[in-house]
Design goal:
Blueprint lengths: L2 E5 L4 H12 L3 E6 L11 E5 L5 H15 L4 E4 L14 H29 L2 E6 L12 H21 L4 E8 L6 H13 L5 H12 L1 H4 L5 H13 L6 E4 L3 H10 L2 H12 L3
Parallel strand pairs: 1-2, 1-4, 2-3, 4-5, 5-6, 6-7
Helix pairs in contact: 1-8, 2-3, 3-4, 5-6
Length: about 270
Amino acid sequence: MTTILITGASSGIGARAAALLAQGGATVFGAARNARAIDGIPGVTAVPIDLTDPASIRRAVDLATERAGHVDVLINCAGYGEFGSVEETTLVDARRQLEVNVVGAVGLIQAVLPGMREARSGRIVNVSSLAGEFAAPLGGWYHASKFALEALSDSLRGEVRQYGIDVTVVQPSYVATGWHDDAMERLESVSAHGPYASMAAAMRRYFANPALARQFTTPDAVAALVAKAASTRRPRTRYRIGPGSNIAVALATILPDRAFDALTRKQFGYA
């Protein structure tokens, strides 16, 4: 039986993916700061974790290993969006963004890899974002965290292939969860009243548009893709999901930087 450790399992995509994987017969350990929220997911064992604490990361992996004997699949699904201008975001908040979205994920990878190498099999699924392919104003630190996760995934894939370990990335675009509300709250607290206030207001209007909300991907659809990335025999290196996501990445690749900047300003309604 496959043993899976998934972070961010207390809500949203992580909770749905954990439930789906458990329904499929896997032994699933769901990790989150709020571990009590995982108790109601059938077939999922709750594991408390603080991704900013190396000791907590080690304990989570040890618990899964002690109870199941091994971890076959690690899914890094936890994360949040630190929004606000680069100038106004404090370095304390910037470091926390990188600690949770990048360093904590790598800490888990480092903790599970020795067992995977010994077994000469395993899989690591990093839930990234289209934000790891291109960047927009007022999301610099969030984009930085996803760019870093993408780069680390590529490097890691080349390193561990020799041990029979796969590394794959899931890149959702906009998803209908509370993530955007939390990100807009961060934006409000950081940049709503300073020199970038008009840009912050435009971004809030953009995400409040009901027409945009209708284009959001459901968390169930993303969770199904995460489960596929974790369980399919020969996974792709990347799975992208969301209306227009492939077109957006193509435009970011082929357009000159300033042309893409102008397209982004028009999309969000910036002056």
